[in-house]
Amino acid sequence: MPELDQRDVDVELVGVTKRYGDLTAVAGVSLAVHRGEFFSILGPSGCGKTTILRMIAGFIEPSEGEILIAGKPTRGVAPNRRPTSLIFQHLALFPLMNVYDNIAFGLRMRGVSEGEISGRVAAQLELINLSGYGPKRVDQLSGGERQRVAIARSLIIAPTVLLLDEPLGALDLKLREHMKEELKAIQHRVGTTFIYITHDQGEALAMSDRVAVMSRGRIEQIGTPSEIYEQPQTRFVAYFVGENNAIAGRTAREDAGRVVVDTPEGRLVSRNPQGMEAGRSGLIFIRPEKLQCTAGDDRGSGPNALRGTLEEIFYEGPMVRMRVRLHTARQVAVVIPNLGRTVLPAVGDAVVVTFSADDAYLLPDGGA
Amino acid sequence: MPRRTAAAAAVLMLPALLWVLLLLVIPQFKMLDLSLRFNLPIEQVGTEADVHTLVNYHAFVTNPLYWKVFLKTLYSAVVITLVSFLVAFPVAYAMAKLASGSWRRRLLILILIPFWVNEIVRTYAWVLILTEHGVLNQVLQALGLMQEPVSHLYRDSTVVIGMTYAYMLFMIFPLYAVLESLDTSLIEAAQDLGAHWLQVLRHIILPHAIPGAAAGGIMVFMLSVGTFVVPSFLGGKGALWFVELIYRRFYDALNWNLGSAFSFILLALSMLFVVGVLRLFGIAVRRVIQAS
Amino acid sequence: MTTRVLARVTYLLYLGVFLSFLYVPLAVVGILAFNNSALPQFPWQGFTLRWFRAIAADPLLLRAVANSVVVGAAVVALAAPIGVITAFLLVRYRFPGKNLLYTLVLSPLVTPGVILGVSMLIFFDSLGVQAGLATAVLGQTSFIASFVLLIAAARLQKFDRSLEEAAQDLGATPLRAVLLITLPFLRPAVMAACVVAFLLSFDNFNTTFFLIGNEITLPIRIYTTVRLELSPTINAISVVFILLTVTMGMATELLRRRAST
Fold first, then answer.
1. Domains recognised in chain A with CATH numbers
2. C165 contacts in A (CB within 8 Å)?
3. Which structural domain range is residue C210 located in?
4. Which residues of chain B neighbour C25 with C-beta distances below 8 Å?
5. What is the mean pLDDT of chain A?
6. CA-based angle B260:B261:B266, to the nearest 5?
7. What ipTM goes with this model?
8. C162 vs A85: CB contact, 8 Å cut-off?
9. pLDDT digit string (tens) for A102-136?
10. Domain of B241: which CATH number?
11. Is the dihedral of CA A324, A328, A330, A333 positive or negative?
């Protein structure tokens, strides 16, 4: 990606580490979030993503390293003096205040006149399509309405960065899908930088301009959603983002970005993003939806053919998931779109699973 | 801890420290110190003659009047505590598990109302009942069960009844609180698995009720050993209780040193009881406090 | 089936006996307050309100009630801030000696009231402070603050800290966040605690008895009167006392229920 001018960076973390006693929650994280970007930090719970968010918001001070917001160092700056605003996981709407007072809170703290406040709150309520909701009590709102009020309450103070701590986690599936679109739309409208943390890859991939995948306090990979999904750079990312089949083997030779790998399933060919040399052990990753599964025991199929038995079929509506037991007793998952016309093999049939070398990639075995 | 937080904690600590030191720790140390000194004429206090001694505790051990009253108080308190548990448990259980919504609230209010009535008034009520021309004798005479009215006051047993009446309600509410928190499906599961109701009581309900019983037991015991009103009204001169001994050292006999020794013995007994109950049931103080 | 019915009847019978045991003595006190007889005993001699009129004519009794109100108000003024601030300290902060402090502030709940009274009597006497209303206030505060602490701490534990953080995030200073967000949240609990504190003070005998000196409060006055003689005036004042404390008790119950939602 092209080198960006410092002016375009809204939030920058430089070697940020946070330790609690012996425990290192965040280990030397560096990243830069650009102005107007929807940036997600994706990772399993306990990976340190919330700690990073709370350090940016100012509730926790880093043990080491520096956090710059709009180019200014933030060490020692209290949360109430930072140009950030945080949407809390459970939203933290003030229960004793109505919608209007919740949204007006930030402006009141800044000594804005009540006259101006009423105009700006009304504008915010319009932005989130809740005009006339001002006098409602917070507990009278639906889950989606609460989300939007929380966003309005933060956006009204025009923060440089809006920080979102898994705010969709508590919603049911339908509403979550809807709020994803709505969040993205709001971000387009206001143009504020969003930093969004989540353990839900679907959310991260769907909404973000860029995603940082974290594990055990470290950044594993930063990239666009498609880079993260199609070109994982580490085993963790390959396993954590989306579903993956992995086949271990040893590289026989490599040329022109392709690598031939000897595996218990036979010789397989895949991409070689890390440029691994011959004689190294590694894992070939291939996603279930990139596999084809055909009935029979056809020896004449291409190079990447895995032979096995169809063990189970899961009908999931838009797609059909199959579990194939290979001859080596290893299982692979195959997902095919439910096109309706496909004749599926039956459970117990011998099948051949094939894939294109372009869809598979090899990553080193040991370590990350 | 950041400096801001430490400073805030220090400011918040101030009232707590004043409270604990000036109203609790220093006074009780003063009391202990006084109990370890001779009862001297005022002009000798603070002179060379004012040395530490165990004479007051010695007096307690050697004078049978003192330790017999002490043992009677202790024994009665234990009995009252046990009786209170036996009486209160079915009531608490009925409130928590048998009564439905509106009945539970009604029962709760019916039991709370006497709970809010002052101990003195509740004890006075028993004076009116048990005195020579009191309600009890009138009823007994009307029924022909008694010819000559006799006073039922000034007996140890009367004092025990009065205390049970006055303090058993302190057992009900902690028990009610723990029993209410008992998941009814646990009881049903036990019955479903073939447990007889006695077995359910023994294996499911009672173990769950222990923190509440401990909290209630501690309250009832404390109030029983520490009461002045009940023996004073119902016991009179005929039935002397330990707190009355303390009171007399301070106001009649004017021997504050001996009174302090008695007070300290009572304090030590209370602490021992609390620690003992908690140890016996192996529960943490916090659970007991939550229950009460 | 029949054993079930039998068990149910036995249970109801037990509850009935229990409730009678609770209420009959109180009913005796109440009925005899209206009996037109010089002694508080049956038989019924006719209805009268003269024992209630006698209260108004008894300057000592009126003074006792006034003192009780003053002492109660003073105890609330002292114990409420002490209890609430200490609740903040114990719920929010970690510091060395916290467990010891916890034990000490809760110890008055399991210390016989006479011990509190006696020890403070000795302490104040050594300082040359005369026993009176002020020492009674301090004595009652020593344990009533523990009750306030418990009620406030229970509510504070339910408070979602992220609300305070949200306020700070939106520009409030930490102190302002507490004042605008946390204290309003605590208000019902603090109100309940204040009524409880007043009720406990109004009711207190054991601790007060040693610290009141030559002054009187309502319980002290009733006690000394009963020791002196049995009179229907005591029944009348008891009825008033019951009405006052039960009303306050109901109030605390309502407030606590509101505080627990």
1. 6-238 (3.40.50.300), 243-364 (2.40.50.100)
2. 57, 59, 79, 86, 88, 92
3. 57-259
4. 122, 125-126, 128-129, 165
5. 89
6. 95
7. 0.89
8. no
9. 999 999 999 999 999 999 999 999 988 899 999 99
10. 1.10.3720.10
11. negative
